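Quick one, probably user error.
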């Protein structure tokens, strides 16, 4: 058995079983996974964090070994890492209590109590708004240099964090959460339970650390100059030497960070699809003879049931918006709200045969609407996805969403002079939209002006509502995204090719296409 008790905890737990006392601690739970529980608690008016490791089990150990990962079986690794960082003068947590017992690695029980570092804010939280709200320039430079200095100090002394993300850097702040940008930033490193301490570790661990750090900073709006500042401090070399000698290394870091992003984005999308295509807290599934329906629980009311029971009857009575061979679109009022009903028709026998086994366009629209909301793009709220089926074979399909009122972009802009405030504001809105689409690798597939509604808000501003999501999708493969997003941008430009403001639109397209 190994243990450490600081004086205050030795007084609190005197004569008691420290492991039982650690197990009884209650408070605000921050993380609870198999083999580890993290919570914040108060004792004698002070705030602390405790990590309790009740044992990971042989299954977790074998899984890590099979995937060539070093299993972390208790709090001992973090205890050693904290001591190592403190010996190097790197700000980190302070241990108040630590205990470990048991020889069997699968059932070993351990805990670690550390002082709460509050008031502090994680860099992930504090830097989240940098893309749209730039911080004080001097403070940003100092912060980048400090992160680079800490990374260099870690790696130069044979230590790899292995969870090296911005969320594991805490920035000291005031009790109200505000950061004094006139002062030198004070950072502390946390969450060291996977830290690797090995003086002669291979370079791949350093690459993983740096790639993880770069991945977590992708959305902060860092410029190329900011990245060069980091490289200069981390390597201790001027820019010229970095470009001449180390460019392949830093490009490999960038590629690895993009792989992490791609893996993370795929994981997010799989979770989203599991939530929106099955019974969940957001979606209800209704099955009837020859029908399969997905319903948005937040919007659904009993008065909307006719949309599932007799959608064609409602379409006949509704206001026609579009009556095409493949799509019929109408507007209808039900349960005190206006809805757009879209029916995907089977144009002919062979067309119907070709669609039997494929997910319908309504199925894709349903997913696209949730995806866009998930990344912060405005689109009408989805209400219903309905497919008529013969067993597993799909026939006609219906997609229902809320109706939003607004002017399409061309109607609003066509009669406005190029130097008007309306043009400037609208192009700024489209730039924000394209930035999100590019960052999240969203392709619309049909970027004509009628598919962008500019809707006035109560505060006098406008938002862009993206509609007609039939061809909208994620293109996570870089080459495919470049191809189809470029097509999107060119189609958008075609709306104003012959307008006086074509030059302004062209500048926006070039800016968005730069570096694709």
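Nope, works fine. Designed sequence:
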């Amino acid at each position: 058995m190994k243990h450490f008790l600081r004086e205050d905890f030795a007084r609190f737990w005197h004569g008691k079983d420290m492991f039982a006392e650690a197990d009884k601690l209650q408070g605000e739970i921050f993380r609870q996974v198999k083999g580890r529980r993290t919570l914040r608690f108060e004792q004698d008016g002070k705030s602390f964090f405790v990590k309790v490791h009740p044992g990971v089990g042989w299954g977790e150990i074998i899984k890590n070994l099979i995937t060539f990962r070093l299993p972390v079986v208790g709090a001992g690794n973090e205890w050693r890492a904290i001591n190592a960082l403190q010996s190097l003068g790197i700000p980190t947590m302070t241990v108040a209590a630590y205990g470990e017992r048991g020889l069997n690695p699968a059932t070993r029980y351990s805990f670690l109590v550390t002082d709460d570092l509050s008031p502090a804010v994680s860099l992930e939280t504090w830097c989240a708004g940098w893309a749209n709200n730039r911080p004080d320039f001097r403070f940003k430079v100092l912060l980048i240099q400090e992160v680079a200095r800490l990374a260099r100090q870690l790696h130069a002394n044979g230590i790899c964090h292995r969870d090296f993300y911005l969320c594991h850097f805490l920035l000291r702040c005031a009790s109200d959460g505000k950061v004094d940008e006139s002062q030198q930033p004070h950072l502390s490193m946390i969450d060291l339970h996977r830290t690797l301490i090995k003086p002669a570790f291979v370079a791949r661990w350093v690459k993983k650390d740096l790639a993880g750090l770069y991945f977590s900073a992708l959305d902060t709006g860092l410029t190329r100059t900011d990245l060069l500042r980091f490289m200069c401090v981390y390597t201790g070399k001027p820019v010229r030497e970095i470009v001449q000698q180390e460019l392949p290394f830093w490009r490999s870091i960038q590629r690895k960070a993009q792989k992490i992003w791609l893996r993370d984005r795929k994981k997010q999308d799989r979770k989203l699809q599991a939530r929106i295509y099955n019974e969940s807290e957001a979606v209800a599934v209704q099955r009837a003879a020859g029908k399969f329906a997905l319903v948005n629980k937040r919007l659904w009311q009993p008065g909307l049931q006719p949309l599932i029971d007799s959608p064609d009857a409602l379409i006949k009575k509704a206001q026609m918006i579009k009556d095409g061979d493949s799509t019929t679109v109408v507007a209808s009022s039900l349960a005190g709200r206006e809805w757009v009903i879209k029916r995907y028709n089977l144009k002919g026998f062979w067309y119907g045969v070709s669609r039997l086994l494929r997910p319908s366009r309504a199925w894709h629209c349903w997913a696209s609407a949730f995806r866009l909301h998930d990344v912060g793009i405005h689109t009408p709220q989805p209400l219903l996805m309905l497919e008529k089926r013969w067993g597993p074979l799909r026939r006609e399909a219906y997609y229902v969403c809320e109706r939003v009122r607004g002017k399409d972009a061309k109607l609003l802009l066509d009669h406005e002079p190029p130097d008007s405030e309306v043009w400037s504001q609208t192009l700024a809105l489209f730039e924000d939209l394209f930035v999100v689409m590019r960052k999240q690798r969203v392709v619309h597939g049909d970027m004509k002006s009628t598919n962008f509604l500019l809707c006035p808000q109560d505060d006098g501003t406008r938002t862009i509502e993206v509609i007609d999501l039939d061809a909208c999708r994620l293109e996570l493969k870089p080459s495919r995204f470049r191809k189809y997003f470029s097509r999107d941008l060119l189609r958008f430009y075609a709306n104003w090719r012959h307008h006086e403001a074509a030059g302004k639109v062209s500048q926006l397209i070039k800016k968005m296409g730069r570096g694709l």
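The mean pLDDT is 89.
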